[in-house]
Amino acid sequence: MFSYYLNLALRSLKRNVVLTMLMIAAIGVGIGASMTTLTIFRAMAADPIPNKSRQLFAVQIDNWGPSKSGVQTPDDKLQQQVSYTDAMGLMNAHAALRQTVMYSTGFALSPPNPNLRPFQVPARATYMDFFPMFEVPFRFGTPWTREDDEGRAPVAVISRELNDKVFGGANSVGKTLNLDKHDYRVVGVLDRWQPVPKFYDLNNNQYGEIEQAFIPFTRAIENQMTTWGNNNCSRDAVAPGWEGHLHSECVWFQFWAELPTAADAERYRYVLNNYAAEQQRLGRFHWAAHTRLRDVREWLADQHVVTDEARILVLVSFSFLLVCLLNAMGLMLAKIMGRAGDIGVRRALGANRRAIFGQCLIEAGVIGFAGGLVGLALTAAGLLGLRALLSEQTTRLTHLGFWEVGITVGTAVIATTLAGLYPTWRAAHIQPAWQLKAQ
Description:
Blueprint: H1 2-15, H2 17-45, E1 56-61, H3 84-93, E2 98-110, E3 119-126, H4 130-133, E4 138-141, H5 146-150, E5 155-158, H6 160-167, E6 176-179, E7 182-190, E8 213-216, H7 217-222, H8 241-246, E9 254-258, H9 262-281, E10 291-295, H10 296-302, H11 308-338, H12 340-348, H13 353-389, H14 402-419, H15 421-428, H16 432-438
Parallel strand pairs: 3-8, 5-7
Antiparallel strand pairs: 1-9, 1-10, 2-3, 2-6, 2-9, 4-7, 5-8, 6-7
Helix pairs in contact: 1-13, 2-11, 2-13, 2-14, 11-15, 12-16, 13-14, 13-15
């Protein structure tokens, strides 16, 4: 029966090609506009580490005190990063299952292949806990050890892209890389890993690629490797030299703790508040202890990763889709009313309302499917255009995957079918006697 109704629907659509194309175009344009914005919104709002987003916590400590106005409330926005003094104080507390402090830095890499010129390599200085905490996959090797952290060992984990570029994709574990004229032994090569957004450091290219090399934090500090990311300082004067900068109130480190249970998180909050209170007693802070502990989802919300403008744009685009659906519904109604005579004859020959309703509803579904395909093409074109307009780090937001394809076509079919309910209902209630008399 479905194939019979489908055949009738296709014949009906062929009778008035212009009207059919107008309906498909209306649906396609609305779907294309709404799905383009929705695709970007979903990429921005996606959970970058769903398995552990409730177990990983970003740490914030107020080491600057009240604003210039002298007003400080519990809702004051804290610094996104922490100082070296606070980072080391919390690392030495060992209050979490896993914990790491990190910062963005970089090297000049001199490749072993003489045919390759030296080039800049963005890097991340961190602790070995970084890799199991953030579920970083490895293609070759493993992270370095805690002994390497403590011993400031010249070891490195490199990205798959860097391994392909320098070592041709071969297993490079045990080989040496010359970074800033220092030799580092490769202990691991990452597999494909690109969290979107790059939640562990939203201060530096939050939608950009991951770093190409990872080295022990202790090694980077010993070699006085400056940050390639944001480095914000308070109003207090900073002593000259590397040590002066380290022990200043400048914030340029990210601190994360893994706390598997709610009880662990509550205990860590207690430790964090006690640490801040101790700094106050020591005379370093002249204000009440002010700290925050936020899991990944809370952190993304606090940092406004999904902007208000993006939310408004999605709302506007779906409002436009609604207008397109109303237009398509009007065209469907006009088309069905133009076939009132044919429908009346079918009713007179024995077709019941259910049969008419089914045929017209399938016809609306066919229009929705065709509109969905047109909308999919327009969505792909829209995302391609945005790639040319947006910055390089945000191009990952314009990826059209299988889920997006399914959502686009499914939304078109469902929306068009719903829009066709009223015209279909009108068709099912056409009185055959009136139509035969008019004929």
